[in-house]
Every structure is written in C-alpha cells, then in structure tokens.
Amino acid sequence: MTVPIETVKTLRQSTGAGVLECKQVLEQVGGDLKRAEDILRQRGLASAIGRASRETREGLIDAYVHSGNRIGALIEVNCESDFVARTPEFRELVHNLAMQVAAMSPRYVDAEDVSDEEETPVGEVCLLEQPFIKDPSRTVRELIQETIARVGENIRIRQFSRFALGE
Fold first, then answer.
1. What distances in angstroms separate CA 126 from CA 26, 46, 54, 99, 106, one per listed residue?
2. Domain 5-51, CATH class in plain words
3. pTM as predicted
C-alpha cells in the first residue's frame, strides 16, 4: 500500500519518529494513523527505558514565577548533550516542569527519595508520580519518557525548589 506523504508528515510531527520509520509503520497498519501512532509510541517508550542508565551532564535550569509574584519554582533538568538542551522541545519540557513544581508543590523527585516517615501518598509528594497539570491523563514520568523517545536522549530531573510567600 502506498501511503500519502501528508500522512507520513502528520505522523512524524506527532511522534518525532523518522520519516522512513513512519512510512514503514503506516504501510504495516494500512494507513491507520492512530494505530501507527500507538505502535511508534510503544517503540519509543521501550527505547526510553533502555536509555535510563545513560549519563546526563548537560541540561537547563529554568524558573517559573506565577502571576502575582507570590509563588515561584526553580528546576534543574539534565540531558546527555547540549544539542538537545538547546532544542525548543526540551526548553518547553523544562519550563512545564517548573510550572508543575509551582502548581503542585511536590517535595521529592521520585518515590525512591521519600522518607519512611512520610505519610502523604507518593502520588502527591513525588514530582514524577503526579498527574501532569496540562494533561492529567498522563503522569510527569510519562511526559518525560515520551520526550526521551522523541529526542533520543536520557532526561533526568536533578533538583527543584518551590518558593511561596509565607511558607
């Protein structure tokens, strides 16, 4: 089956996969864009898991101050290369994560960091386990894994701080 180039472009834009891979998957599923997107997302998430052990020494620090200047957040997010750190997609991810910290007030990056005395549910206090503020159907961890799959590099949240007047 021949797949129209516009369909290949649409799939590439939504998944970040290569043109040839998009074309092959679309041919495999008979041009079904939704199924092709699901297949590519699954492949990307599998490759993201494989990248988890790779070292991250580059990245960005971003600040978010909420309107009214009463709440703010500072976050450091690392990746493997400065090339990825300079991409608009990575910059947007880091800014969204700073916004997440300001809005949801997590205390830990991951469940592994939680102390034994913590009584609040992990999903509320761990940044990676929280629902993403712009799309509550996904967690922050899923958002990062999808970005890892698209950019082809490991991404890690190193640290963050939240500031609020009176706290």
1. 38, 23, 22, 15, 6
2. mainly alpha
3. 0.72
